[in-house]
Amino acid sequence: AQRVTQPEKLLSVFKGAPVELKCNYSYSGSPELFWYVQYSRQRLQLLLRHISRESIKGFTADLNKGETSFHLKKPFAQEEDSAMYYCAFQGGSEKLVFGKGTKLTVNP
Amino acid sequence: EPEVTQTPSHQVTQMGQEVILRCVPISNHLYFYWYRQILGQKVEFLVSFYNNEISEKSEIFDDQFSVERPDGSNFTLKIRSTKLEDSAMYFCASSESGRWGSPLHFGNGTRLTVT
Lengths: 108, 115
What we know:
The structure holds two protein chains of two kinds. By secondary structure, chain A is mostly beta strands. Helix content of chain A is about 0%, strand content about 45%. In chain A, a hairpin with a 6-residue loop joins strand 5 and strand 6 (about 45-50). In chain B, a hairpin with a 2-residue loop joins strand 5 and strand 6 (about 55). Chain B contains no helices and eleven strands. Chain B has strands at about 5, 10-15, 20-25, 30-35, 45-50, 55, 65-70, 75-80, 90-95, 105, 110-115. By secondary structure, chain B is mostly beta strands. Chain B is globular and about 35 Å long. In chain B, the strands form two sheets. In chain B, strands 2, 4, 5, 6, 9, 10 and 11 form a seven-stranded mixed beta sheet that branches. Classes of the chains: A mainly beta, B mainly beta. Chains A and B meet through strand 6, strand 9 and strand 10 of A and strand 4, strand 5 and strand 10 of B.
């Protein structure tokens, strides 16, 4: 079954600390992976995608096929990074399969 | 920057009634989607729509649900005979192309409350 697991429902760090939001997926083929973010009172928006291999707002994510992971990392968290983060993937079809999300709080 | 717009932002309806949720996708996008999120649960795929027909649907999307693109701009989700468990946030999304890696642009959502 296609599944995305985000093991942490809540994650709290201090400003300037490194942050890692974990994501594991279950899929036997080659997936396309995404991180979506939802800031308070705003819409879900794409943060970054595996296919682009880009860094957005200081965040990066590396696909590890051996561990079936796509963890989101940022070396120095900022208060404005506080948001809900969703890992999602496409595998074999156009639909996105989402994880349950991790609420990141960056404290001053 | 163009956005997907959804109306209404909040809809309250009685069990058994029909509701229509409306969406205006981004104008040059060709692929349209509905997702829903029951409170405390994950965002779930309902249906994708391309070239005036459903291209994929989930097991949630049964005969109670239907989608339509009645004109060149609107994309609607109709829920017939609503049930309490249909209460959720419903998100519309669109993308320029349906190929893998193509980002989805989401609307702000419609919160449906069935009483």
